[in-house]
């Protein structure tokens, strides 16, 4: 008799397309992403772009609210903690670099 087990399957949505791709750009992307095939390179590049877009949205959400970290070292228990007063300024400098 077969035992009952839960089997989880993930079916990703895939679309088959035919496109002309610049070979130099594809090779550059393959080297940067460390992929082995054209399909893997294109999928990895699309994934990286989508993740970057989500990160931009998250940063925009944080930019839309005022952040005040001046008392952050005192907010942690046991007198420890991190001084986050320059966090916003450091992030903006890194973003502009």
How is the secondary structure organized here?
Blueprint: H1 23-33, H2 38-63, H3 72-75, H4 87-96
Largest sheet: none
Overall pLDDT metric: 79
Proportion in β-strands: under 5%
> Regions with pLDDT < 50 over 5+ consecutive residues?
none
| Rough outline | elongated
- Count of DSSP H/I helices: 4
- Give the SSE string: HHHH
Number of domains: 2
Going by helix content, strand content and strand pairing, the class is: mainly alpha
In total, how many beta strands?
Answer: 0
Task: Please provide a written account of the structure.
The protein is an all-alpha fold and 97 residues long. Helix content is 53%, strand content 0%. Helix 1 crosses helix 2. The model has no long low-confidence stretch (mean pLDDT 79).
Task: Please tag this protein with its features.
about 100 residues, mainly alpha, 2 domains, 4 helices, about 55% helix, about 0% strand
Brief overview:
The protein has 97 residues and is mostly helical. It has helices at 23-33, 38-63, 72-75, 87-96.
